[in-house]
Design a protein that fits this description.
Elements: E1 6-11, E2 17-19, H1 27-33, E3 34-43, E4 47-56, E5 62-71, H2 74-80, E6 88-90, H3 102-120
Antiparallel strand pairs: 1-2, 3-4, 4-5, 5-6
Length: 122
């Protein structure tokens, strides 16, 4: 995106549409062509693998993925948890509004690398 252009994928501290500084990804255009999604796979011992991915809608080519594991502990362990039954997550994520999760940063990591590698060939 160009500097000063409205970035509809983000909001500022007051809830208004953020203004691009310059060089950000235009996520509205990205998601017309690419798919961002997740799949959940149950494993043994109350572990669930959550698989995040970004792929091309037309070709099905996978551009990047990330996984995290959630362990719930079953009904007996859940009844004794201080957190009220929420799963443990690996890798541990900080629940800080300024610290994005793996799922949020995956598109930026993929497309920023593609943008930089295409410039090297110029």
């Amino acid at each position: 995106m160009k500097a000063g252009e409205p970035d509809r994928s983000r909001r500022d501290a007051y809830g208004n549409i953020a203004v691009a500084v310059g060089g950000e990804l235009n996520e509205a255009k990205l998601w017309e062509r690419y798919q961002k999604g997740d799949e959940r796979h149950k494993r043994s011992f109350h572990v669930t693998e959550v698989y995040f991915f970004v792929k091309d809608k037309k070709t099905g080519e996978l551009f990047g993925s990330a996984a995290r594991f959630e362990q719930s502990g079953g009904w007996l362990a859940d009844s004794f948890k201080e957190q009220g039954g929420s799963p443990r997550i690996c890798p541990r994520e900080r629940f800080d509004p300024y610290e994005p999760t793996i799922y949020d940063t995956l598109p930026q990591n993929i497309f920023n690398q593609l943008k930089t590698s295409s410039r090297k060939g110029d």
